[in-house]
């Protein structure tokens, strides 16, 4: 009798598992992918999509089509609970799914629990909701054509900085007559604290050149609606941080990553932030028949930032170990690289390259980033 394997979530690691499964399926395993979206975004292209370089189709993977090509079942549903002892997954639509073993790649969302009025902000994830809000915002600006538009981005990590560059470029291109004020509100005393001093200096210089305001030691703590929209004006909000208030037209939330709340009741071994603790084999420390990859997983022995590059690198090792587990073979450890090249698109046909202490900014890095991202998407 075939074993039942569930892939929960359509993240980068699982997309790569499906690609390899298409070439090397296991007859002894019945594989099903469950995802709350049918079109899963590729994080490497999302800033470029915001800036207008890529269409929705170019920056998203068609999961039902990928599953069909791999002979894999697809269910569009959202996971809300798991019982690893009884091997049951609970979802919103179908209810319960039985499995013999399972892999989670459900990503993360910005942590907003400490922001009063967070419902007035626009979280960068889940991506489909963010992109819908972004398109609505563009239409709203186009309709009202204000003299000035102020956008705040809460979060000064790589995601917040790259989003700031690409949002500013798109708005400046589409609405040249509007005075733009793009702001980054950073909780800490520095931007991109994981990167080198040279890299931070380069980025700060570019932000200043693009008139993107950086507010350090300014965590967004409160969002209040100042007044409702009418026929002549855009919605306006007030942001508060350390008793400082500013009025803005929109707030993007790109704060620290947080896991799905239901994991806290899963019985799985979690790290201090609530992410799934996994071994180098990508197995749960508490339940070896549960695997996890991407943002939702924390490699306890080899901790790394929550970045798409690691989810991509985990894809093939995850596939190999899922196959080995299904066949009763020994699993192999995955050791991620300690250094990696970060390429941040700046929305102007150029990109910033960051590698260890080294940093550079030019058109050639955008060409490299575009090539890498298109090559990745061509696999699917």
Topology:
Layout: E1 3-8, H1 12-23, E2 29-35, E3 39-41, H2 46-51, E4 60-62, H3 63-70, E5 73-76, E6 79-83, E7 88-91, E8 96-98, E9 101-104, E10 109-110, E11 122-123, H4 127-144, E12 148-154, H5 158-174, E13 179-185, H6 197-209, E14 212-215, E15 222-227, E16 236-241, E17 244-248, E18 250-253, E19 257-258, E20 276-278, E21 290-292, E22 297-299, H7 308-326, E23 342-345, E24 351-355, E25 358-362, H8 363-378
Helix pairs in contact: 1-3, 1-7
As laid out across the biggest beta sheet, the strand order is 5-2-1-9-21
In round numbers, the mean pLDDT is: 93
What is the SS-derived class?
A: alpha/beta
For the biggest sheet, the summary is: 5 strands, parallel
Number of helices: 8
CATH architecture of the largest domain: 3-Layer(bba) Sandwich
Number of strands: 25
Q: Which oligomerization state do the chains in this entry correspond to?
A: single chain
Q: For the record, what CATH class of the largest domain applies?
A: Alpha Beta
Helix content: 25-40%
CATH level 4 superfamily of the largest domain: FAD/NAD(P)-binding domain
Basic shape: globular
Domains, number:
2
Provide the low-confidence segments as ranges. Answer: none
How much beta, percentage-wise? Answer: 25-35%
InterPro entries: FAD/NAD-bd_sf, FAD/NAD-binding_dom, NADH-Q_oxidoreductase, Pyridine_nucleo_diS_OxRdtase_N, Reg_chr_condens
Cofactor: FAD
Domain FAD/NAD(P)-binding: 4-315
Keywords: FAD, Flavoprotein, Oxidoreductase
